Amino acid sequence: MPTLGFDRAPEFLGNLLNTLTERGRHLLRGITHGSSHALSEAELIELGETLLSRRGEATGVALAQTLLAGYAAASPAERLAFLTALGDLFGPDRAQIEQAMARVQKEGFSSAAVSALHEAAEPRRQELIRRLNLAPGGTEALVRMREMLLANIAEHPQLRPVDSDFVHLFASWFNRGFLVLQRIDWTTPANILEKIIRYEAVHAIKNWDDLRRRLAPPDRRCYGFFHPQLIDEPLIFVEVALTKEIPGSIAPLLAEDRVPIEAAQASTAAFYSISNTQKGLGGISFGNFLIKQVVEELKRELPNLHTFVTLSPAPTFANWLKRERAADNSAALDTADKETLALLDQPGWHEDGAMVERIRPVLLAAAAYYFLEAKDKRGRVADAVARFHLGNGARLERLNFLGDTSENGLRQSYGLMVNYLYAPDAIESNHEAFVEKGIVTAAPVVRKRLKSGTASAA
To answer: One of 35, 203, 389, 413 is an active-site residue; which one?
Structure first.
């Protein structure tokens, strides 16, 4: 029997899948209006129930494709109603749970009885989501579905159990084993480069020339994680500047007239922008794996690099400082501090040398308190960016006064930026200290910024 050439295998398998899907679609005639039409909430629910009841793979793929297409074409109200129905109508089967519990009571905690209880307790929507994922483009469609769910969850808290099931499944489907690290450079396909411009969330990319300055020079790198089911969609990407010293401000890194250096001249790799791209994957962590793998990649490529740091924003520092200034009994600020920081309300303060010198020590002392002592309502380190890097095993290395004097930088942090140091030999111990004991590992220069009497034992 002749063998199938390897180069023709993808085409053959694709044609086979399309044939099976088309056969299944024929079976659906009379059930739906067709995959190109919007479906109502009732029709989407009926299709979901039918999909869960079928065992045929071809029929299942066609059903899944029809449901996802009908959902995508439906009105926002119908889509939201279907998401709500996932919570109301596609939960665990109560009768099966009662049977499984009765079996446990009868047989004890045998592996078979416990397994049956576990299976019965799983919400039916999890299996429905799994089957929808089998449709061509199903993974991306489900990511978009969760994006809408997240956009409505605050006003519709009954969606939270549905979101928990999405997170449970996505955490498996998008785990590190399925992610592929790719370098993104000026030769990367244009459709991906366009998305880098669109998705950049920290320092906006103005145009193609700006993008070229971040990708093409020998002292610049960009890496992203990709998933096999979202080939041309980076899930997260990081921009890296290769420098001779730890940078304290963003403007020189992005300057149009910057003079590049050769990569071999650099001693430091500065991660200056990390952007998650898929709202529907919110809460699924990629960044911790990305930074650590990029560090290893850079170490292999450039043995001359010995310092790995971030140049990070402090996006909620200004709001926190405003609350402390307004508080009657602030643990971080005294009356004199508040009087000095009132200068922050004056337009152009950052361009007035006298005001800058008055504000600098007070603001940096407040920033040290913010990163080392301040907690959010859940008792966590107040700054989300700090939680991310400290949880990854970084050290709080330096506070940079007026590190970002852009309009956005002044608004969100009064220009403050932060360096987090990733020392390969200390990452694991720093991570354990933070996660297990809540200890913020910080350089002495940061701790010295704390005013006497405000620091806890460290």
So the answer is: 389
431 is catalytic: no
Q: Give me the CATH topology for the region 177-310.
A: Aminopeptidase (3.40.630)
pTM equals 0.82
Q: Active site residue: 312, 406, 429, 452, which one?
A: 312
Identical fold for domains 6-173 and 313-447, yes or no, is: no
Answer yes or no: 164 catalytic: no
Q: Domain 313-447: give its CATH code.
A: 3.40.630.150
What's the CATH architecture for 6-173? Up-down Bundle (1.20)
Domain range list for the chain: 6-173, 177-310, 313-447
Three-state secondary structure readout of the chain: CCCCCHHHHHHHHHHHHHHHHHHHHHHCECCECCCCCCCCHHHHHHHHHHHHHCCCHHHHHHHHHHHHHHHHHCCHHHHHHHHHHHHHHCCCCHHHHHHHHHHHHHHCCCHHHHHHHHHHHCCHHHHHHHHHCCCCCHHHHHHHHHHHHHHHCCCCHHHHHHHHHHHHHHHHHCCHHHCEEEECCCCCCHHHHHHHHHHCCCCCCCCHHHHHHHHCCCCEEEEEEEECCECCCCCEEEEEEEECCCCCCCHHHHCCCCCCCCHHHCCEEEEEEEEECCHHHCCCCCHHHHHHHHHHHHHHHCCCCCEEEECEECCCHHHHHHHHHHCCCCCCCCHHHHHHHHHHHCCCHHHCHHHHHHHHHHHHHHHHHHHHCCECCCCCECCHHHHHHHHCCCEEEEEECCCCCCHHHHHHHCCCEEEEECCCCCHHHHHHHHHHHCCCCECHHHHCCCCCCCCCCC
**pLDDT tens by residue, the chain, 458 residues:** 333 333 444 444 444 445 444 444 444 544 444 445 889 999 999 999 999 988 767 788 999 999 999 999 999 999 999 999 999 999 877 777 777 677 777 777 777 777 777 776 779 999 999 999 999 999 999 999 999 999 999 999 999 999 999 999 999 999 888 999 999 999 999 999 999 999 998 999 999 999 999 999 999 999 999 999 998 899 999 999 999 999 999 999 999 999 999 999 999 999 999 999 999 999 888 777 899 899 999 999 999 999 999 999 999 999 999 999 999 999 999 999 999 999 999 999 999 999 999 999 999 999 999 999 999 999 999 999 999 999 999 999 999 999 999 999 999 999 999 999 999 999 999 999 999 999 999 999 999 999 765 544 33
